[in-house]
User: Which sequence fits this backbone?
């Protein structure tokens, strides 16, 4: 007898992907680190992201030891921590955002330790109350689902799992088992914001994942330019851009590392360009071409 | 408070971990998905090697003829007289090839790297003892080797940096974070994620994702096994007291593991209290930290209230890791091992005492263990057999000791 299928409640993330599908558009997921370079700049920024074209906001929870991140996001974590950001303040930021915006999904991304010491039971309740829609936690694999994934699901928070080029077919079902919202395909074996992904390789991996799940698949790690965004989005349901946006923040800061009047516009300009690239007709044509290719 | 975390006593202290790599609450496999398939493959390869007589025979051969095992069990006669009390023995692991116990583990892991057909070796190092041992086995077996080392540590451990370079390893300075051992480990993990197909990561201590804590312990447990036999030979019985220093805790696990179920034996792990635990400048994870998750395992960590990892501080670069092997965390909670701490100045004093009385220059790491011995031995009877693991020699430390004593060389 097979166990009853876990049916997660319909969330902002589900509605977001459904609406995009109807509009024949791909999701633009934008990452910034919460509190980089300070709480207020960061909050102003996330408030402006939806109007600039972000469909889903991924908010990094700064951590002292971000092992999966490249130099750009490492530096942003350090800036945020130096600016006094804590996990509680990140949840406060989400609360403040939700006072004005009820529709744009917010996904928190980070590492387990700050959540573990929060501790977990309080964190998932506070996160749900703040209006968090999903979690991406780099260092909690499916083997440890009882740690955080299941408590999060109980509070109606999606647990978005990373699938990687090394996730083989034998492992994929375990990775997908308790995943909800969407699947985040990590396009390279590596850390954030370093190597550029190979489109053909991404396509074959995303196809492999889509054969096993009905969830949307978003692709990230190494997507930097509107051109890459367009090319990669053609083979997925969305793309995640992080290091490129965080670089825009870093470039805008003054000598003391403080925000300037360029900080917000530097980031929203790139988000606009990325969003426009995703709305071009071209990717749709590419998808039609897929019919010529043998299925797996 | 951490001292309240005492849990029930198990039937045996030597059966861990469980199949998912847990020692009670601690251990596990908290790594990014990119590494998970690799970690599982490593576990399988290690399980197969462990029961393969050929692997064991090759390792034994290397340990004897290349590593220089067994290391002597030496009666420290003058120190015993000086302190008055327990009969003090040194397990002389500083006489191993490369000058510390680190070679035991590296010989095991390089054999495994060859079985898994990896072509490149990476490692992290703090004091440089592990880095030197890795560079040594990489040279011996012809692997390209990259060692990640905090920029701060490179400055204070110059002799070891030069040794690694002589051995053909590339030493990559790590400036991210605070440029110490934890950052070196982060950087090694980042390298590994980016080169999973080709690279074997030789972790130097009993920490990291399962199976590392178990594997490193097993390779180091030769220390305790030898002590058992040698003490039987010398005194016709087992020791009464064991003492070892703890950074990540590999030399201590190596000494302790064989004796964990001999419950009449008192076991002490000695952490570095730096300038004193109450100053906040220390790296006593068990005595001054609390449980958390870092570098693939759950264990006691130095961290702030928000779960951000703090830097450890110690005069000894080999002890200033903000975490500790998960098995030690479990041994603390079960009460089987007593974990104490020793300050920089106590370790410096012990360093000089050992040098003058025994003609042995110890590394600053085991000088911490020795400092505890100087407190403990006088409280014990003369028939108490005490074994301290002298896990490294002090050549690498003479410059920093001179600096701390206000001398120039």
Assistant:
């Amino acid at each position: 007898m097979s166990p009853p299928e876990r049916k997660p409640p319909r969330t902002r993330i589900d509605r977001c992907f459904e609406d995009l599908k109807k509009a024949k558009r791909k999701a633009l997921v934008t990452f910034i680190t919460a509190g980089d370079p300070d709480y207020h700049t960061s909050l102003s920024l996330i408030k402006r992201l939806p109007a600039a074209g972000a469909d889903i906001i991924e908010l990094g929870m700064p951590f002292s030891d971000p092992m999966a991140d490249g130099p750009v996001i490492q530096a942003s974590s350090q800036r945020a921590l130096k600016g006094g950001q804590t996990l509680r303040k990140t949840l406060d930021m989400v609360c403040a955002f939700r006072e004005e915006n009820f529709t744009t999904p917010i996904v928190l991304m980070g590492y387990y330790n700050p959540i573990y010491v929060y501790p977990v039971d309080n964190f998932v309740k506070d996160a749900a109350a703040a209006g968090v829609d999903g979690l991406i936690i780099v260092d909690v694999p499916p083997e440890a689902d009882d740690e955080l994934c299941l408590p999060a699901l109980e509070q109606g928070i999606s647990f978005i799992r990373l699938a990687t080029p090394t996730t083989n077919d034998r492992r994929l079902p375990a990775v997908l088992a308790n995943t909800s919202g969407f699947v985040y395909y990590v396009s390279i074996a590596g850390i954030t914001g370093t190597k550029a992904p190979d489109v053909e390789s991404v396509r074959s991996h995303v196809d492999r994942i889509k054969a096993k799940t009905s969830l949307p698949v978003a692709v990230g790690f190494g997507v930097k330019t509107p051109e890459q965004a367009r090319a990669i989005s053609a083979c997925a349901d969305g793309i995640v851009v992080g290091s490129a946006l965080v670089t825009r923040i870093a470039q805008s800061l003054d000598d003391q590392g403080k925000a300037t009047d360029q900080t917000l516009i530097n980031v929203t300009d790139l988000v606009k360009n990325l969003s426009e690239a995703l709305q071009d007709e071209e990717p749709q044509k590419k998808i039609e071409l897929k019919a010529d290719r043998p299925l797996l | 408070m951490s001292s309240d975390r005492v849990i029930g006593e198990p039937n045996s202290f030597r059966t861990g971990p469980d199949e998912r790599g847990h020692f009670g609450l601690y251990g596990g496999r908290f790594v990014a998905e990119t590494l998970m398939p690799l970690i599982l493959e490593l576990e399988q390869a290690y399980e197969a090697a462990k029961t393969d007589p050929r692997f064991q025979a090759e390792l034994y051969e290397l340990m004897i003829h290349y590593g220089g095992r067994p290391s002597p069990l030496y009666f420290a006669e003058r120190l015993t007289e000086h302190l008055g009390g327990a009969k003090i023995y040194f397990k002389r692991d500083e006489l191993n090839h490369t000058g510390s116990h680190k070679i035991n583990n590296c010989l095991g892991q390089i054999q495994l790297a060859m079985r898994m057909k990896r072509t490149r070796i990476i490692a992290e190092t703090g004091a440089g003892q592990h880095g030197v041992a890795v560079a040594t086995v990489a040279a011996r077996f012809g692997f390209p080797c990259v060692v990640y080392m905090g920029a701060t540590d490179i400055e204070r451990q110059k002799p070891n940096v030069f040794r690694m370079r002589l051995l053909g390893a590339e030493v990559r300075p790590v400036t991210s974070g605070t440029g110490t051992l934890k950052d070196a480990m982060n950087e090694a993990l980042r390298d590994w994620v980016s080169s999973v197909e080709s690279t074997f990561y030789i972790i130097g201590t009993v920490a990291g994702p399962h199976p590392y804590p178990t594997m490193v312990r097993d390779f180091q447990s030769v220390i305790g096994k030898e002590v058992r036999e040698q003490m039987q030979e010398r005194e016709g019985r087992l020791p009464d007291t064991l003492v070892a220093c703890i950074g990540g805790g590999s030399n201590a696990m190596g000494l302790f593991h064989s004796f964990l179920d001999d419950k009449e034996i008192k076991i002490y792990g000695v952490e570095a209290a730096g300038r004193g635990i109450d100053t906040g400048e220390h790296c006593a994870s068990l005595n001054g930290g609390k449980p958390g998750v870092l570098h693939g395992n759950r264990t006691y960590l130095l961290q702030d209230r928000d779960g951000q990892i703090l830097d450890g501080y110690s005069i000894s670069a080999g002890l200033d890791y903000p975490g500790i092997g998960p098995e030690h965390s479990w041994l603390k909670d079960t009460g089987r091992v007593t974990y104490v701490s020793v300050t920089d100045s106590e370790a410096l004093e012990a360093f000089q005492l050992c040098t003058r009385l025994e003609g042995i220059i110890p590394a600053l790491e085991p000088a911490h263990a020795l400092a505890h011995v100087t407190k403990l031995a006088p409280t014990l009877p003369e028939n108490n057999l005490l074994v301290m693991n002298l896990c490294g020699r002090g050549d690498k430390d003479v410059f920093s000791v001179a600096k701390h004593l206000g001398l120039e060389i």
